[in-house]
Each structure stands twice: as structure tokens, then as C-alpha cells.
Amino acid sequence: MALYSDVVMDHFRNPRNVGVLEDADGVGEVGNAKCGDIMKIYLKIDGDRIQDVRFETFGCGSAIASSSMATELIKGKPLSEALTLTNRAVAEALDGLPAHKLHCSVLAEEAIKAAIQDYYERNGIPYDAALFPQESSHGHDHCCCASETEAC
Question: What residues does the NIF system FeS cluster assembly NifU N-terminal domain cover (predicted)?
Fold first, then answer.
């Protein structure tokens, strides 16, 4: 059995929504210090809907595929729906990720939430802070690798 699904390989080889939105309404950047993955999500919002989304990811194939899939899953959706996107949904849409790569889908979820939170803060829109990861938990000091010494 292959380590990665055909869907993961497709999103790695042909990532969707790559690049920068210069006039982004919200930007979220998260990283994982132990694994070295960094994701940046840019949102263009019209009303309450995600009109466009782009990403920049520095990381492994799973990180790139997770970023690509996550952007596909939220594009055109209302912010309230994008906020319900979970790392599990990203991994399932990719037809699974190896256990030691699940942190990539977690980063994708956190980057989207960070971008939406940035949009709310830029525009003075009140929000429930419980919907967003805490500043210190944006993946900076956690890793879902099988062991502390295993490379992600």
C-alpha cells in the first residue's frame, strides 16, 4: 500500500490556490518549530463569504497538500462555515494522511482560523475567542510525530 493517497499526491504535484493575495482582507500564518512547516493563508472576503483564498507553504508534501485541500474546501464559503473546517475534514478529503503527518492538517486548520481572526480584528468585528487557537498554540511547540526525534 502506498504511503500517500492519489489525492495527496495530486494536491502536492498540482497545488491549488498557491500564491499571495496582495490586497488580502485577512492573513494567518502558523508554523511548527519542531517540524519546520510554515503555512500562510490569505483571504479575500466579500460580505461574509470567502471570495478568494491563497496560500504559501514551506514544508513537506503533506503540508503543501493539506494547504491546497483546505483552500479548496473553504473557497466560496461563508466565514461561519470556514470556521467549522477541522483538520480531520482536511485529512479525510485527502483520503487520509499517515499518522506522523496529521500535524500538517492541523496547521491548515489553524492557518485558516488565524486568517479569519485577523480579518475580524482588522475590521473591528466582535468574535468568540474560543473559536480560535490561542496565540501560544499555533503549532509553534507541538509536533504530531511518532517521537520527538523522528523527522516529520
Answer: 4-123
Cβ–Cβ < 8 Å for 109, 132: no
Q: Which helix (H) or strand (E) is 111 found in, with range?
A: helix 102-122
Residues pairing with 39 in the sheet: 30, 57
Tell me: the pLDDT tens digits for 7-63? 999 999 999 999 999 999 999 999 977 778 899 999 999 999 999 999 999 999 999
How far apart (Å, rounded) are the C-alpha atoms in residues 111 and 96? 20
Question: Measuring CA to CA, how many Å separate 125 from each of 22, 42, 117, 122, 129?
Answer: 22, 18, 9, 8, 12
For the question of residue 35 being annotated catalytic, the response is yes
35, 143, 145, 152: the active-site residue: 35
